[in-house]
Specification:
This protein is mainly beta. It contains no helices and 7 strands. The chain has one domain (2-61). It has a 3-stranded antiparallel sheet, with no helix packed on it. The chain has a two-stranded antiparallel ribbon with strand order 1-7. Strand 5 and strand 6 form a beta hairpin.
């Protein structure tokens, strides 16, 4: 059995709705764009991301 660590590729703020996606090219989180509009949320929000203890980054393969 092989174990692989799989980081999240998207996240959303549970307070203001901001959505970020992982940009592998720049190795950084960037604000998601949908239909030409950036999902920025509130500018002064202290973001509470939806990635918590229920997210499991471990993937087991046979």
């Amino acid at each position: 059995m092989t174990v692989e660590i799989v980081p999240p590729t998207e996240r959303a703020c549970t307070r203001c709705g901001r959505r970020d996606v992982w940009d592998a090219e720049t190795e950084n989180w960037v604000i998601e764009t949908v239909d030409g509009e950036r999902r920025v949320g509130r500018p002064h929000c202290v973001h509470e991301w939806d990635i918590n203890g229920s997210y499991n980054p471990v993937r087991r393969t046979a």
